[in-house]
Amino acid sequence: AFAGTDEEAIRMHFLVQLNGHYQGQATGETFNYEGKTDILIKDKGRNIFIAECKFWRGEKIYSETIDQLLGYLSWRDTKAAIIVFNRNKGFSKILEKISETTARHRNCRNMIRQISETSWQFRFTHRSDVNRTMTITVMAFDVPNKD
Question: Which of 12, 93, 107, 110 is deepest in the core (most CB within 10 A)?
Answer without folding.
Answer: 107
